[in-house]
Amino acid sequence: MNFKKELDNKVEITNKYLEEFLPQPQGYAKVIYDAMRYSSFAGGKRLRPVLMMSAFEAVGGVGEIIYPFACALEMIHTYSLIHDDLPAMDNDDYRRGKLTNHKVYGEGLAILAGDALLNLAFEIMIKAAKKHKSWEAIDAIDIIASSAGVKGMIGGQVVDLISENKNIDEDILHYIHENKTTAIIQAALKAGAILGQGSNEEIKALERFGYCLGMAFQVQDDILDVISTQEELGKPIKSDERNGKATFVSLKGLESSKEYVKLLSQDAAHQLEIFKEKGQFLSWLSEYLMSRTY
Amino acid sequence: MNFKKELDNKVEITNKYLEEFLPQPQGYAKVIYDAMRYSSFAGGKRLRPVLMMSAFEAVGGVGEIIYPFACALEMIHTYSLIHDDLPAMDNDDYRRGKLTNHKVYGEGLAILAGDALLNLAFEIMIKAAKKHKSWEAIDAIDIIASSAGVKGMIGGQVVDLISENKNIDEDILHYIHENKTTAIIQAALKAGAILGQGSNEEIKALERFGYCLGMAFQVQDDILDVISTQEELGKPIKSDERNGKATFVSLKGLESSKEYVKLLSQDAAHQLEIFKEKGQFLSWLSEYLMSRTY
Fold it and tell me: Which residues 6+ apart lie within 8 Å of A293 measured at CB?
């Protein structure tokens, strides 16, 4: 199996379905559709949809139900980035080398575009659950909703926001990373496994895999913010330092952070053993992500 | 039946369930729970939950499933107000005589509190659908999600925002009113009727009743913004004029606006005829709302 080709294929499928699920710009409110599409097609890595599809396949899932869910996850991710970039939050002008949503459409429309993407994500998932008359789909929505809310992603964003320019300890940093990024990645894998009708053992293994991968990915982000160049990263480097944000690197040092990523990667690999050949793509993907430089 | 007492009772029930469904402030992200609760208990009229419960009862609905949905609707309403009040949108410092969310918690947390309320609304509805194993509940979520999104409430907010200080025509004003306020009120009645397992005829009548009531309510709002006092209204009057917003009153004149409210009220009353005695509360409520001065 050519894994890189398989990754590109999954990204392409995500883009195709996103194109379908994002309404065409039209009518008096046309500009909001443009704003939603602008950030949805601004060069995202589609990590969450790819992970979800891969978990679905690892447990032997078949059928179309995974695509609306994969797109919904990407929409939730995109909405969180649009709001996170706002002046009242991280105040970033660029993301992935492109102007952020509010720099193009203004703050008011950027707030509404984020709201609209979150709302649309639930719309799409509910319609898919109805269409397939699937209670697994309802379970999946429940997991995604919980991981995106105050006890997950939003909670992480809140603590991240109120911790700026403060000396925070490792517990709080762990809380931020576990919730701001990892919760949704974990949900991608767990919900994918549930939609694919995996066994309880498989669902648990993929959930733990998601935890390890999500945390490793976040610590890696902290590392890259320090050692990468703006050209490679597509956004200003050392933004964490400028924003007075504590990171794994600032709290634990560069070497210790790299060591932690390695440990998490090993744990992640271990979780995939029960899937044998069906886990190979996730195994490759996890190594691929850990060796990235951008 | 003492209708005013029945209204107070429904408001009280909504408050009781909101108290239950809004998580208790705790943990590192405690402040966001505070912010969510602040706006949720800032004196809202609970119009949407009351309408939803009333539609449920008008079709003979029984059981607990209506309460999480009624609370979810109120959370969606509250999130939209928090975001609408932000400096990038309407820039209001007061609502219902109290400081707006961002004036108390800052813009970043206000954005996140709004996001969190929208997300929580879906969480609560999905959990209720799971608990009751009810496909009517899935239908209701679908209706609410659609009416809250770009083809409903958010679309209305967008056109409202981009129309500031512009000469807009009646078609655009209709679009704004139909979508910004009416869509959700209509959804409250339709979803309530579906959750109560009403007949198709009953669902249709309540949907139309919701349209008439929502539009009348909005035009009434425009009227009150001109003829009421700040003390009565609990917020600055003539804010539409200050914000350069076209209203029914500015486009059609005060008398013609009052006449339109009357016509809509008559149509609304007509829709309730099939419910006979079970429609009496909605009938009284609609008249009560149309005669309000705040």
Answer: A224, A228, A232
